[in-house]
Write the structure tokens for this entry.
Amino acid sequence: MEKLVIIGNGPAGSTAAIYAARAGLKPLVFAGNTPGGLLTQTSDVENFPGFPDGVGGFDLVMNMQFQAEKFGAYFEYEEITAVKIVSGGPHILTVSDGRIIETQALIIAAGAVPKRLEVPGEDRLYGNGVSACATCDGAFYKDVPVAVAGGGDSAMEEALFLTRFASEVHLIHRRDQLRASLIMAERAKKHPKIKFHLNCLITEIVGDKKVSGIRFLDRESNKETLLPCSAVFTALGHTPCSKLFRDAGVETDISGFIVVKNNTSLTNIPGVFAAGDCADPAYRQAIIAAGMGARAAMDAEKFLADAE
């Protein structure tokens, strides 16, 4: 029987592991087959406190893991394939190698994945001009043209944020009407740097080692255009990695993000806690995920102490 299992080892899971390990809980962390989460796909992180010259995303996550291991956390690179959640525990987890593990408390830090365009060049150039986070990567593209894919409020926010750096921002949306709220759409339309391409579909992201442009199809004229740009930011939303837990009874919102109570990490099930992007529909930043991980570990520690 484990005291605490943490699923995920991005900033949320690894920070939870640090706090839990320092509290003597000896947490077992399942990193899955893509350890470190989305942050490992970011070449340089410049907005995480304590690194004035920036730090590689992979290095940042691995240092968190090493710090957690120093205090007694255990990391495994297997996936959890099935979950049976029991109010108050123990919770029963099935591991991809066939093991069955019971745990008194569970922290879900499984992250979220950005929705993709699913076009040629996207996967190959991800992290080299293709990004799902303007806040993370926008500052790398000063005085060059960039593109944003999407038509909702997030796309407007990304485009407006990028105007601080880029020479021009091309917003590509596949429909002829924006999905964004009126106020956000008007704010973007009024900005002189933002150029709208509505009813247009990105068909390819072009570039050798870095993005050099995009091809998009005007669905009305059926004309394809090659647009030179240095980056493509996808603002199509995120899919939280929560289905396994939702099916086991953990409450989620309409978009699948795990619901936590009143600025805590507590879910609707005692002994089950959530942290990071899988429980954060608004921010999805490494520093916020780390803070949520610390909160989850502290909540789990209290739960376990009260259960003794």
